[in-house]
Amino acid sequence: MIPKNFKCLDLACGRVCICTRDYIMEQRVNALNKKIKFVEHDEVLPKSSQELSDISLCKYSEYPARECIDRTCNLCGTQNIKDYRMPLFTAFTDSNTNDLLKFHQWETRKETYTNRDGHSKKTTRWMQVEKKTTTQDVITDIAEAMESYTGHIFRANFQNKVQASLIKSLPLDHCLVVMDYSENMTLQPQDEIESAHFPQKQVTVFPIYIVRHASESTEENPVIQKEFLVILSDHLVHNASAVFVFTNQLLIHLRNSPGPSVKVIHRFSDNCATQFEYKDAFSHLFSSSRKV
C-alpha cells in the first residue's frame, strides 16, 4: 500500500543543477499564470519570466540598454510589472476567489541531529518547501526579484547568442568548449554488504562540451563536429587548481585528436568565482595558452 501523500519520482522529467534564482522565479510566475485562467480579464494575460522582464524595460530591438539592465533608467522599472498585474489582484478581490497562491521554493533550514557519539549537532540544509501567499505578495516579490533577475537572464541569453554566433562562423583553427562541474558521483558496488552503505567513495565529474572542425573540414566546406569529454577524478575539491588540471587534459585531448590544429579556444563556463573567476584561474589561462 502506498500512502496517499506519497508521490513517486518522475525520473524522465527530473532536473538537476537548477539555478536557485531561476527556479524560484519560475515557480512564482507559473503559480500566477495558473490563477489567471480562473479570472476572465482581457488586460491580464499569462506571461513568462522573460516577458515580465521585458515589461520592466524600455523597448529594444536586439539588446536592452545598459542603463535599463542596471536599473538606472528613469523611463522604465519593475513598477511596470506591478502596474500590469494589478488588475489581476483587483479581479480576485471583486470575484471573492481564493486569493492564495501555492508554489514551491528551496530554502535553507536549520536542523539539529544526534551523531554517532550521542552529541547534538546543528547544521543547515537546503529543503524544498511549499509556500502559500496572496496574489499581491507574489506580484510584489516578482517585481523585487526582477531588479537583479533581468541582468541575470540577459547575461544568460547573451552568452547563448555569442556561442551560437561563434559556432556559425568558427574559424578552422578555433575551438569552442563549455565546461562546468557536475554533481559528484557515488561509486556503488554491484553487491553491497550492509556495513558498506555509509563509507561510499565519490568521484568528481567534470564534463566538457567541445565544438570544433572535423578532419575533413576546409575553409570552403566547413564540417563542424561536436563531442563530449568527461573527466573523472578522485580529487573532490572543486577549485581553480582542479580546473587547471582538467583544462590541461582537454589540451592533450585536442592535440591527440584528428582534425585541424587548434590555436584558439573559446571557453564558456558559469560564474563560479572560486573555479573560473578567481585570480588563480586567470593566471592558469596564461599558463594554458602557451600549451595550445
Automatic annotation (TrEMBL):
It comes from the Eukaryota. This is Uncharacterized protein. It comes from Mytilus edulis (Blue mussel).
